[in-house]
């Protein structure tokens, strides 16, 4: 633990924002993992309950079931049920509007990860430049003959580069992973929404 603290201190002041970025990225990743796990967006049991109630012509009970659950499918299905009796195209358009809003909510944390993945290496580069400036200041004052005096600036430059990459690379991988989970959950939500739409407007408009 003390070695890690020494390593952090040797990196200089730029290590502080890099450390903060790593904590923010980790928190955003864990929060998105929890939000995007199976059953948190379009739970299968809720879809079965809603479609069964609609099949039995009990839209009021279906609305009640939706309002009891704080998930994306419940909010989308509620809109569809409330629009019951309107033209299918109108209901579908409204569903797409709500679906886009829910998709944006699912992607919210992913943007934080993307920012950390972009900023952390740049902070490492900033630390590198700062360390090299210190090195050249030592050279200007003492010349190039004192290796120990130069080592501090060079070490600081390399440490911040390493730290920035160690934060940025995992954040980039986490960002891509979260985006893939978002795509999967959005697809599930779309399929569930179509199932509700078919129940709400399935008998509409004879050919």
Major β-sheet, in short?
none
Helix-strand string:
HHHHHHH
Gross morphology is: rod-shaped
What structural category do the secondary elements indicate? mainly alpha
Helical amount among residues, as a percent range?
A: over 70%
Strand content bin: under 5%
Compute the number of helices.
7
Number of strands: 0
The average pLDDT score comes to: 84
Q: Stretches where pLDDT falls below 50 for ≥5 residues?
A: 203-207
Q: Can you describe this structure?
A:
It is a single chain. The chain is rod-shaped and about 90 Å long. The chain has helices spanning 2-10, 15-35, 44-55, 59-67, 72-82, 88-142, 147-201. The termini are far apart. The protein has seven helices and no strands. The protein has one domain (2-201). The protein is mainly alpha-helical and 207 residues long. The longest helix is centred in the middle third of the chain and has 55 residues, at 88-142. The model is unreliable at 203-207 (pLDDT under 50).
